[in-house]
From TrEMBL:
<dbReference type="InterPro" id="IPR011831">
    <property type="entry name" value="ADP-Glc_PPase"/>
</dbReference>
<keyword id="KW-0320">Glycogen biosynthesis</keyword>
<feature type="domain" description="Nucleotidyl transferase">
    <location>
        <begin position="9"/>
        <end position="261"/>
    </location>
</feature>
<dbReference type="GO" id="GO:0005978">
    <property type="term" value="P:glycogen biosynthetic process"/>
</dbReference>
<comment type="similarity">
    <text>Belongs to the bacterial/plant glucose-1-phosphate adenylyltransferase family.</text>
</comment>
<dbReference type="InterPro" id="IPR005835">
    <property type="entry name" value="NTP_transferase_dom"/>
</dbReference>
<keyword id="KW-0808">Transferase</keyword>
<dbReference type="InterPro" id="IPR029044">
    <property type="entry name" value="Nucleotide-diphossugar_trans"/>
</dbReference>
<keyword id="KW-0548">Nucleotidyltransferase</keyword>
<dbReference type="Pfam" id="PF00483">
    <property type="entry name" value="NTP_transferase"/>
</dbReference>
<dbReference type="InterPro" id="IPR011004">
    <property type="entry name" value="Trimer_LpxA-like_sf"/>
</dbReference>
<dbReference type="InterPro" id="IPR056818">
    <property type="entry name" value="GlmU/GlgC-like_hexapep"/>
</dbReference>
<feature type="domain" description="Glucose-1-phosphate adenylyltransferase/Bifunctional protein GlmU-like C-terminal hexapeptide">
    <location>
        <begin position="291"/>
        <end position="364"/>
    </location>
</feature>
<dbReference type="GO" id="GO:0008878">
    <property type="term" value="F:glucose-1-phosphate adenylyltransferase activity"/>
</dbReference>
<protein>
    <submittedName>
        <fullName>Glucose-1-phosphate adenylyltransferase</fullName>
    </submittedName>
</protein>
<dbReference type="Pfam" id="PF24894">
    <property type="entry name" value="Hexapep_GlmU"/>
</dbReference>
Length: 392
């Protein structure tokens, strides 16, 4: 029996505005994570280990940041003569399908003709802003064995956070109710932005929904498509009990980085049978110099530590000078913390410089400093500061 033909569409075009300064000059999927990775590495590594070689990446906002990282797809075994990685930028067309997308369902509708030509047996649509490991092929096999039009991968979320997601009610495997970002969630069972669709019926349904929506458009998958499939009894749930964290806010981004500092992290990023791959290897070994002290932290290649680092993630090229202290923080590539400075519960973007004796953050809300910013020597940024300040 021939294996099913599977197409994975990775949605990497969103602005990620809730990530604030971290996504001003890069797409959310290109945000660094756990030192050496980017968020998009997780779905691409899942594709690789699931044995799926046809992967399309839809880009729109700050596409160069994603294109530069993915290159030809080699780290994920997607640099192939036939199939492999294909980028889907916005395009001009003689039809009304050209132009910029206004949501995930709208983006799927704009690529409908290309998907029909490819003729997959299953279409897997995934976001690229969450950290998890999942065998997509296993989900596809369960979907194809059912009569569902869509299989939604579900997970349990914190009750205080549930209104950020599509929330479902489930009877066995059947999804009986779906509400997108409800004000008062009925359950804490959320879709984790991995969907397996039957391409023909789904694209046909999208065409009708597009006609019905008129000028309002299709918006996101959760606005019209998933509710319609659920109402018609065509939605199925695949329960996922592993670690999954959506990095939709600065707080969740900081917390996810902290999760990977434990002696037994929630995901083994170097697991022999399922390593998370990335484009890297351009830095020398990390060095701890002079009186440098490290405790419970991640150090990437090219880092130089002469100060005190505790409970923090240091990306490639970070320098912590003598007498400086970095605690419970995430430092992205090229950050320099000068002598005597203190950084606590902060996220510092690319190439930030913290001047001598400066104090950044402390107990309280996460402090965020945008890329290329220099914090003056001896100055103080109170907890929760956003620098530069967002435009109003």
């Amino acid at each position: 029996m021939a294996l099913p033909k599977i197409l994975v569409l990775v949605l990497a075009g969103g602005k990620g505005s809730r990530m604030q300064l971290l996504t001003e000059t890069r797409a959310k999927p290109a945000v660094p994570f756990a030192g050496v990775y980017r968020l998009i590495d997780f779905p691409l590594s899942n594709c690789e280990h699931s044995g799926i070689a046809d992967v399309w990446v839809s880009v729109q906002y700050q596409p160069q940041s994603v294109n530069e990282h993915l290159a030809n797809g080699r780290p994920w075994d997607l640099d192939r003569t036939t199939g492999g990685l294909m980028m889907l930028p916005p395009f001009q067309s003689g039809s009304d399908r050209g132009g910029f997308t206004t949501g995930t369902a709208d983006g799927l509708w704009r690529q409908a003709e290309l998907i029909r030509q490819f003729a997959p047996d299953a279409l897997v649509v995934v976001s690229s802003d969450a950290v998890y490991k999942l065998d997509y092929r296993e989900v596809v096999e369960g979907h194809l064995a059912s009569d569902a039009e869509v299989t939604m991968v579900t997970t349990e979320v914190d009750p205080d956070d549930a209104s950020r997601y599509g929330i479902v009610q489930v009877d066995g495997e059947r999804v009986t109710d779906y509400v997108y970002k409800p004000d008062e969630p009925a359950t804490t069972t959320a879709t984790n932005e991995v969907f397996v669709f039957s391409p023909g019926p789904t694209l046909d349904r999208l065409e009708q929904l597009a006609r019905d929506a008129g000028e309002d458009g299709l918006e996101d998958l959760g606005n019209h498509l998933l509710p319609a499939q659920t109402r018609d009894g065509k939605a199925r749930a695949h329960r996922f009990d592993g670690y999954w964290r959506d990095l939709g806010t600065i707080e969740s981004y900081w917390q996810a980085n902290q999760d990977f500092l434990s002696a037994e992290p929630p995901i083994d990023l170097d697991e022999a049978g399922w390593p998370v791959h990335t484009r890297g290897g351009r830095h020398s070994a990390a060095r701890v110099l002079d009186d440098g002290q490290i405790e419970n932290s991640l150090l990437s290649g090219g880092t130089r530590v002469s100060g005190n680092v505790r409970g923090s993630v240091l990306s490639p090229g970070v320098v912590v000078e003598a007498g400086a202290s970095v605690t419970d923080s995430v430092l992205l590539p090229g950050v320099r913390v000068r002598a005597g400075a203190t950084v606590t519960r902060a996220v510092l973007d690319d190439n930030v410089v913290i001047g001598e004796g400066a104090t950044v953050g402390g107990d309280g809300d996460i402090t965020l400093v945008g890329r290329e910013t220099e914090v003056e020597a001896g100055s103080t940024l109170v907890p929760g500061t956003r620098l530069p300040e967002p435009e109003r």
